[in-house]
Amino acid sequence: MKSLIQWTALALSLTGISLAALPERFEAGNKLPFVPNKFIIEVDDLARIHSKTSLDAVYSSLEERDVAIEVNREFDTAGIFTGASITVRDVVAIQNTPGIKAIHPVVLVQAPKPVFEKRVTDRNDPAVPADSFSTHVMTGVDKLHAQGLSGKGIKIGILDTGIDYTHPTLGGKIGAGNKIGGGYDFVGDNYNGKNDPIPDDDPLDQCNGHGTHVAGIIGADPDNAFDIVGVAPNATIFAYRIFGCGGSVTDDVIIEALLQGVKDGQDILTLSLGGADGWTSGAGSVVASRIARTGKIVTIAAGNDLDMFGPLSLMLLHIEHRTSSVIPLQSATVGGAEHPPIVYYATFPLPIPGTWPIYVLSNDTTNPTDACDPLPADTPDLSKYLVIIRRGTCPFTQKLTNVEAKGGIYSLIYDNGNGFQGIEVGRFAGNTSLIQAADGLWLVEQWLAGVPVTITFPREGGSVGFPQTRGGLISTFSSYGPSNDFYFKPAVAAPGGGILSTVPEDGFAVLSGTSMATPFVAGAAALLFEAKGKTAEVGRTARTLFETTAKYVPSNLTDADPLQTVTQQGAGLINVYDALHATTILSKGELILNDTASFNPEHTFRVSNTGSARKEYTLSHITAGTALSFIPNSHFTVKGPVPLSKVGATAVITPSAFALGPGQSREVTVRFTPPVGLDAATFPVYSGFIQVAAPSENPVHVSYIGAIGKLRDLTIVDTTDEVIPDPIPAIFNADAEVQVEPTNYTFSPTDYPTVFWRQVFGSPLVRIDLVAPDIKIVTNITPRPLLARAETDRPRPRPVFSFPWHPGRENGTFAQVKIVGQIEEFPFLTRNDDDLGGNGFHSFDLEEAVFANGTTIPNGQYRILLRALRVNGDRTKQEDYETWLSPIVGVQVPDKPAEPEPEEPEEEVRDCEEYENEGRLTPSYIVYLGSFVARRA
Ligand SMILES: *[C@@H]1O[C@H](CO)[C@@H](O)[C@H](O)[C@H]1NC(C)=O
Ligand SMILES: *[C@@H]1O[C@H](CO)[C@@H](O)[C@H](O)[C@H]1NC(C)=O
Ligand SMILES: *[C@@H]1O[C@H](CO)[C@@H](O)[C@H](O)[C@H]1NC(C)=O
Ligand SMILES: *[C@@H]1O[C@H](CO)[C@@H](O)[C@H](O)[C@H]1NC(C)=O
Ligand SMILES: *[C@@H]1O[C@H](CO)[C@@H](O)[C@H](O)[C@H]1NC(C)=O
Ligand SMILES: *[C@@H]1O[C@H](CO)[C@@H](O)[C@H](O)[C@H]1NC(C)=O
Asked: Which BP terms in the Gene Ontology apply to this protein (predicted)?
């Protein structure tokens, strides 16, 4: 963020009115995760409709009304989900169809991206954790194995990239009687979330590897070269392949795979997903929650760094526990000057041949936009140089494309303080890497002094162990909860950092990420089912059991530091041994005190003694760090690590001591008082534990979170210039300029308005409506004045997404405001981060002059009304929205000579190479990069 602020200031002072454009603004297209015109409908149970299946009844009802739909897939699992995934233009018509219970937009879900990856070939590789068993030791899994528990008789379905079941450590085969007992490929190798899946019976994955790694964490057989063993090595695993070799998946595929898992009789289903957008509130989470309610255990990870929304009745994990303290990186040797080898962030040597003189693009080592714009005309042919580029402002690929335009092939990018980490460079992978800021500054100094520095990338001998200092703590890339609407997230922490497991081609690799923690808990759940029986009761209480028996995690390694905030560690680090052996059972794992507006001070839970001896209990209150979650006097949340205060809540526990005989239980009441003296402007989120201890057993606990401040008062829509210098929200016109004056649009492929906004906090509902130009409405979002014009090329047109949400209310008025018609509605939109190449903004292209119901917007003058509902706001009340009214938008569609061709929605074209580099495990690369790594200490 800092660099952007500087950049803005710089741009203003240097260029005056012709402010530099944001060339990356539209680069990644529309960021909204919804798939245009695709919906998941849920229909009534069969019994309610006479003599037909309920879906058929719905189809014929639609047919009678001439509503054209295309059925993509059908779901029919009684008691869990009956419905279909359909493509339809007029979703308003769908809403008024008898038999349809719910409509969800189809959501695109990203593949999991491990944070760091390294294929290892021998045990002396520095990436191999010193003690591969330590994750089992720290969680008590080793002791359970010693007791003979191994997950025998338990079936686990893994929804992931497939499994390379030919791996000897995974049994070498697929089918009944093998470790990998079966599965299905729902998508095929080439599926990327935007094309059609090509399913087949074989879930073999030899191109990606993520699912194979996950499978090893659960089920690796002992007696392998690295002596690793899965958490539940005798469990039977089914592979449900929902990701192709790269790319994303739509949530209707996830639902189909979940339901298949139920049909196949899986006891446990585990999924590691990449992005969190939409997932917790979408149809997928509905289905997963219902499966969990039947007593199966569902473990889900969702992203390493994103905000989330909505409650989850599942085990949601978000944590890591790094065991290795050194990561293996490579170094380049320096010639022409005395300097130690320069470490670059890659596991394997960059395949750059020869020795290279350097070329520095900017003499100014504080230039925030280095290489963001096309390089000056007098730039020499860069093909003879190793180009030195400063990180910042625009995506790496943009910088590298500009360098490439001048012939440059190889480069090193120096850090700008964002953090030393792996970086995402798409098709430039192998030609560049990140180096530390200090090395970059040194290189620029030499350049300015005219020293002829050269760089060589040795193929061998360049390995260095780069120290990591977070062992035993929550990984810094783990995101913070709670959800935007203040539900408890994550549930528990599990080992996920520096995990050694199986990968295709009989290999082994070290990966980190929430995706690694998730199967660990799935394996733990298998041990639980094995020990206690596969009953629904055991399944339904598993989350609470794992939470109450988890271990507190400190926030730092010194004694003076508070315990890590519950918003990051959840109830603590899972301890499977204690969970399976606990004889003090608590009825709840989480208490939500809510915010100041809805403060819920009093809570009760039940303590039960299921042991065979009488126990004397002592209850106590243990505070964890209070997360000062907002930057004071700003609308921005702090990027991790979030500062912690030791000032916590107080709690009165009644009774605080009592005895229980075997089989006895009693209720406990806790009354909380929020911490005092904290700056409410930081939106402090306090947390801690009510501990229940008895002599000679490990204490158990209930975790709580609460907030000082009102969620409903939190600003949703960004009007600052911290990330985007233009006044936002805004309509961008055909020339990608902010529209100021009334403007007519012809809605040709190059002339239509784009609604552009940024969210600093999530919103349960964002609406875009068309209103009369002379509407009288009090708006409360006021963008800054226009300073300058953007200069970018027009973005690629994208299909329009339609999703009206309220049957019958889409016309006339919405939330007390008279509207001409509804344009769009987005449920549960996440906040944006400041990565303009990533999730930095929301934009919506109104490409066609049509309302959400598919009817044409008549030519005329209108304004666009953008509304974002505040958290915990009432969606029927205008005052609970943040509201912005656009300048006059004219619809002037020329008369069409003939019936327009019905157009296939265009596939969004993302760089193919980009997909190829996503989610892949190639022998020679690290990749998986992203801002989250920046937060490593
Ligand atoms: C798995 O089962 C086999 C055969 O029943 C048994 O010998 C082995 O000890 C079990 N594995 C573990 C880790 O307990
Ligand atoms: C950067 O410094 C070098 C060496 O002093 C000089 O030749 C070059 O012109 C400078 N470039 C710019 C853009 O100032
Ligand atoms: C917090 O309180 C609000 C208002 O009563 C309620 O709608 C919301 O569900 C509560 N949140 C949680 C997480 O309990
Ligand atoms: C953790 O402790 C170390 C050593 O005392 C200190 O340098 C560091 O700033 C601390 N980190 C945090 C996040 O408090
Ligand atoms: C838009 O079109 C209308 C109708 O043709 C016209 O009256 C109006 O002046 C136009 N506005 C602009 C800004 O061109
Ligand atoms: C609103 O109502 C008008 C007239 O009743 C109708 O023609 C139009 O299609 C409706 N618009 C929407 C968005 O439903």
From this structure: proteolysis
**Is-contact 132 226, C-beta < 8 A?**
yes
CA-to-CA separations, 125 to 96, 116, 128, 226, in angstroms, rounded: 62, 15, 6, 11
Catalytic residue among 90, 160, 267, 578: 160
> Tokens in use for 44?
């009534």
pLDDT on residue 483 = 59
Name the one residue in this structure whose structure tokens are 């193929």.
Answer: 459
% the chain with pLDDT above 90:
39
**Cα–Cα distance measured from residue 870 to residue 192, given in angstroms and rounded to the nearest whole number:** 34
- Domains of the chain and any CATH numbers: 4-30+715-904 (no CATH), 34-110 (3.30.70.80), 111-324+469-550 (3.40.50.200), 326-467 (3.50.30.30), 583-710 (2.60.40.10)
DSSP 758-794: -BSS-EEEEEEEEE-TT--------PPPP-----PPP
Tell me the percentage of the chain whose pLDDT exceeds 70.
76
- Alpha helix segments (H runs only) across 498-608: 514-532, 536-548, 566-569, 576-581
Which ligand 4 atom sits closest to the C-alpha of 556?
1
Answer whether 54's CB lies under 8 Å from 48's CB: yes
**Prior bond of 655 cis (ω within 30°):** yes
Tokens, residue 205: 């994955």
Ligand 3 pocket test target in 598, 711, 712, 714 with most atoms within 8 Å of CB: 598
Taking Cα atoms as reference points, which of 207, 244, 200, 206 lies closest to residue 111? 244
Q: Among 570-584, 722-736, 765-779, name the most confident range.
A: 570-584
Classify the C-alpha dihedral 239-244-245-249 as positive or negative.
negative
Find out whether 368 and 810 touch, Cβ atoms under 8 Å: no
pTM of the model: 0.72
Cα 245 to Cα 187, 191, 193, 194, 204: the distances in Å are: 10, 7, 11, 13, 11
Q: What are the pLDDT digits (tens) for 538-548?
A: 999 998 999 99
In contact, 523 and 151? CB cutoff 8 Å: yes
Catalytic, 145? Answer no
Res 498: pLDDT: 73
pLDDT band at 127 (very low <50, low <70, confident <90, very high): low
For 724-734, give one letter per residue: b (16+ CB within 10 A) or e: bbbbbbbbbbb
Residue that the structure tokens 């350049």 belong to: 447
- Closest C-alpha to 219, from 527, 577, 573, 498: 527
Ligand 4 centroid–CA 556 distance in Å is 6
Q: Which atom of ligand 6 is nearest to the CA of 855?
A: 9
Q: What is the mean pLDDT of residues 474-497?
A: 64
Residue with tokens 């018609």: 821
Active site residue 160: yes
Contact assessment for residue 278 and residue 828, using Cβ atoms and an 8 Å cutoff: yes
More confident position, 242 or 712: 242
Q: Does the structure show a pLDDT above 70 at 696?
A: yes
Active-site residue, 210 included: yes
580: number of Cβ within 10 Å: 21
Check: CB of residue 152 under 8 Å from CB of residue 267.
no
**Ligand at shortest distance from the CA of 364:** 2
Indicate if ligand 3 lies below 6 Å from the C-beta of 592: yes
